[in-house]
């Protein structure tokens, strides 16, 4: 019984991962305000949801293998910061970086903590 990972360490990154993916998917709904036709809207919605779909696959794999989720969510946060850094600096980019990358880092770290506890 002492070898088991506590339930909060097991479920927290998974629940936060689901909420984070839903948040990213919610941000893609701005495509409906563009006044495009049906096919353009469908394509725009698909393009905007690619990160959420990739993270959904990562979350499904990391449900069993926490190391995958730990590495992938941290790399996703770093990738987002790198993509933000390509643009000219604006102060509101810091808020975006905290909202997206910070949450991704937190989820990744929690997955790594769960993986480490499971290994011990």
Shape: globular
Strand residue content: under 5%
Mean model confidence by pLDDT: 90
What is the total tally of β strands? 0
Seen as an oligomer or otherwise, the chain set is single chain
Low-confidence stretches: none
Describe the sheet with the most strands: none
Quick structural gist:
This protein is an all-alpha fold. The protein has helices spanning 7-27, 38-48, 50-62, 66-85, 92-119.
What does this entry look like structurally?
The chain is mainly alpha-helical and 120 residues long. The protein has one domain (7-119). It has helices spanning 7-27, 38-48, 50-62, 66-85, 92-119.
Summarize the SSE layout with pairings.
Elements: H1 7-27, H2 38-48, H3 50-62, H4 66-85, H5 92-119
Offer a few descriptive terms.
mainly alpha; single chain; 0% strand; 78% helix; 120 residues
